[in-house]
Amino acid sequence: MALFTDGFAAGLEDLLGYEADLQAVASAAGLDLNTKLKLAQTEVGAQIEASSRRPGNVFYGGNAGWQSTGAEVSLPRFDTAQVVVTPPLRLWLIFQALALVFRDAHTRKANDKYLPKWREYKELAKWASELLFQTGVGLTATPIPRAPQPEVGFADSNLAGLAAFIRIAWTRGASEEGAGSLEKAVRTMSGQALEITPPAPPTVATGWNVYIGRRKGEALLQNEQPLELGQVWTMPETGFVAGREIGDGQAPDMFRTAPRYWQRG
User: What is the dihedral of CA 179, 81, 58, 61, to 10 degrees?
Assistant: First the structure.
């Protein structure tokens, strides 16, 4: 799962999944949907951070399963950089963004046809926020940020040309991996091998992985073990490897509940 601070945890396609005509609504009202997504993430993030000041209960993962701290107690505050995007959080972001769109469409156009939608999504956002705080905000003690796109070059080889869609991810130890970078599309000519150079790593990273797909949306692991930081990866003469598919990023290693939170407005 991606971290909350990795970027937009919900995208335009998520909003259109609920409202197919949303772009027409936004255009008529002079609204920018990406701006509304960004505002929704800012508002939700502020409320999540505020929840860390309230007493709560933490469930920790381990070999023995999830274990609770017991009764609600005062706990150390957490930072939004530790927050993992779980399904309830993602729903909250989607509904919050949709509520903002229909609120502004209603107030800008003075059109009551948008009022029911505004009320509907405001209630759904409230429901999703309550679900998140009841089931727990997913947290990781050691967040691994999403990797930026790498630098891609070419080396001499005997390989045939290919189209490649490249992503990389930072690792910590042998088993922890952050969310993958955005996809980078390149094409090699015959006699060229891909040469991938990672960007400057975050302090938490101990290595990195290379993922390549032969078509858009595919990302398969190319290295057997995490590469050393700063190491340049060159596609071997054996060519493309159909390794495992890239993951979604870190899973929470704890969940922090909080008292029921009532949204205002």
Answer: 30
Give me the amino acid identity at 211: Y
Domain parsing of the chain, residue ranges: 4-143, 151-234
DSSP 182-247: PPEEEEPPTTEEEEEE--PPPTT--EEEEEEESSTT--EE--SSPBPTTPPEE--TT-----PBP-
d(CA 167, CA 114): 41
Coil/strand/helix, residue 172: strand
Measured CA to CA, the distance from residue 39 to residue 132 in angstroms comes to: 19
Asked if residues 138 and 170 have their Cβ atoms less than 8 Å apart, the reply is no
Note the pTM of the prediction, 2 decimals: 0.85
Q: What is the pLDDT of residues 206-229, one digit of tens each?
A: 999 999 999 999 999 999 999 999
CA distances from 42 to 22, 37, 78, 81 (A): 21, 9, 16, 13
User: CA 20, 22, 23, 25 torsion: positive or negative?
Assistant: positive
| Amino acid type, 195 | E
Query: How long is the chain?
Result: 265
Distance of CA 98 to the CA centre of its chain: 19
pLDDT tens digits, one per residue of 144-194: 999 999 999 999 999 999 999 999 999 999 889 999 999 999 999 999 999
81 closest CA partner among 148, 143, 149, 14: 143
